Amino acid sequence: MLQRLYINNFRCLENFDLPVKELSSVLLIGKNGSGKSSIRFALEVLQKIGRGINRVRDLVKHKDFGWERSQIPIRLEIEVLLAGQMYKYVLALELPEKFKELRVLDEQLLISGIPHYTREGPQVTLYKTMRNVEAKFLVDWHLVALPVIQAESGSDPLNIFKTWLAQMLLLAPIPSLMKGDSTGETLEPDSAGLNFGEWFTGVLGQYPAAYTQIDKYLREIIPDIQDIQNEVMSKDSKSLSVNFEANQATMRVNFEDISDGEKCFFICAVVLAANKSYGPLFCFWDEPDNYLSLPEVGHFIIALRRAFRDGAQIFMTSHNPEAIRKFSDENTLVLFRDSHLDPTRSRFISDFVASGELQGDLVNALMLGDIL
What we know:
Structural class: alpha+beta
Strand order of the largest sheet: 2-1-4-5-6-7-8-9
Oligomer: single chain
Strand content: 25-35%
């Protein structure tokens, strides 16, 4: 479970601390440009590292420095509680004067307060214990060390942490571009959902019982679904389609031809199945209600919130009144900036209530601009 996320000098996030300890679900609200998606982009940097991408230029760009202040390092810190141990990972990236490519300034991983490895520039130090240095080696300034360091086994704490990073679900789907074709399988979907077919195939390939969860959810939302087929098209490819049945008639539709909103239901179904099958997972879903009709939003949000408990977490962003009403004051976080020249700040709605700045209905206050 994510305990803390700290971001400095990354886009509009300066000295930004996300206060989410022990919260299983969080709603981020704020005007366009307030920094909601920037949080997802920062998490994507960490996710890519967990997935083995270690060249700095493939993780961040010059434009990611806040307000072009490249003389100040980009700094990311994440603290995660996994299997009773607290993991703290720190990464600082710099762009020295006259350099064309960013490089690693500082990097470290602590497990329950004990350094697993530390780094200063190219020098990496591995530890068995806090006082017992195991090894020292050099890594290119332009490479992140975490993907390079090998875990001893699947149960090694290092592997547990890297797997958690890799399997974070960071979603901002573009349904119109999603297809059901696959030439392989994965448990690591991309944010736009463009490899949905591979993800669907991967989840069912490794966890066949997940089909029951997917089918159950979709039948509640789309009652005329008869079944879902992932047909083998050739030796290395499959294609997803949906069969519908009503009034003693049937119809088969390729996945890419169903509506954008229905594709979001499929994403939700696989998210729920993935969390149950190989979770608990962390999910950040940017505006999950974007393509849904108003009557569908409430059920959609509640299903996700109910599923992400017992160590799992889900963060969502939204501008939808129905989605906002499905969260409490204690887990609705407002992001705001005075202007594009100012950094993002945050406050929970409960703080507005406690200070007397908010009285009455939250949605009405938002519509009237009393908060944002």
